[in-house]
Amino acid sequence: MTLNTATKSTLSGDTPAAIASDQGSAAATSSETASTFQIEPQDYSLDGYAATLAAYKTAGYSVTSFAEYLENPAAQHLILRHDIDNSLEQAMRVAHIDAENGCSSTFFLRIHARGYNLLELPSLLRIRELTQLGHEVQLHLEGGIHDWIGGSPLDSANQQRRIFEEAVGRKLGGFSSHEPARMGGIDFANSLLTEWSDSVRYHAYEARFMSPNMKYLSDSSGRWREGHFGLWIGKEPLLQVLTHPIWWYERVPAENY
């Protein structure tokens, strides 16, 4: 059973008045940070990204991976997710920024990416470094290939899971869908939670991680549809923020592609 903040505090001996005071202080801090933090709605600079993480932390948010959220949810919590479509090298830049700002995050890695091979030595070393930095590494599941080489969506998903587990040396714990419509949509992802219930605890598009239960913000296709995630500090207590490191740059976007 998941306990809310008030229940946890009551069990630890805090009075209702103390709980209300703590929650009020957190809300006030978030509001103050939101009113002072400024960023362009379509900013993709790594400096801006780092400043936004720091602002969320200052506002009292926990900024963590899916796994840490499931283990220890906070009243103000941002789940930080990175789908790695093209480059593990680009992923590492973001991974270090996250860690430097006291945040953990979940990196979802593909099996069929053209830009990296999970089983080659550089990739294996980067996966180990991601874990050492305190991040979670899980599978970015993709569809479409089985339409050309044969087999069912489930056959393809099981094959991707086996290869991922060989690369990381442990059981799969969660996954996100890459272009979900090519792999049966959310219904198919939901069915895999039952099929893979031996170790898989979640997928990223479950209703509990999406609006209206949790504010979902994404930079898919290099565009924040509801403005940069830094503009949401203090506006929502629970968020899932998805980034794709290919869009984030130190100097100019062209350095990535």
Question: What does it look like?
Answer:
This protein is of the alpha/beta class. It has one domain (about 35-255): TIM Barrel (Alpha-Beta Barrel), CATH 3.20.20.370. The protein is about 40% helix and about 15% strand. The protein contains nine helices and eight strands. It has helices at about 5-10, 15-35, 45-60, 65-70, 90-100, 120-130, 145-150, 155-170, 185-195; strands at about 60-65, 75-85, 105-110, 135-140, 175-180, 200-205, 215-220, 240-245. Strands 1, 2, 3, 4, 5, 6, 7 and 8 form an eight-stranded parallel β-sheet that branches. The N and C termini lie far apart (about 45 Å). The model is unreliable at about 1-10 (pLDDT under 50).
Number of discrete domains: 1
CATH homologous superfamily annotation:
Glycoside hydrolase/deacetylase
Q: How many beta strands in the DSSP annotation?
A: 8
**Tally of separate helices:** 9
The CATH class designation is Alpha Beta
Find the CATH topology: TIM Barrel
Outline the low-pLDDT stretches: 1-12
Strand content: 15-25%
Estimate percent helicity. 40-55%
What CATH architecture label applies?
Alpha-Beta Barrel
Instruction: List SSEs in N-to-C order.
Output: HHHEHEHEHEHHEHEEE
Q: Would you tell me the structural class of the helices and strands?
A: alpha/beta
Major sheet description: 8 strands, parallel
Mean pLDDT: 88
Please give the alpha-carbon distance between the first and last residues.
46 Å
Shape: globular
Cα gyration radius (Å): 19 Å
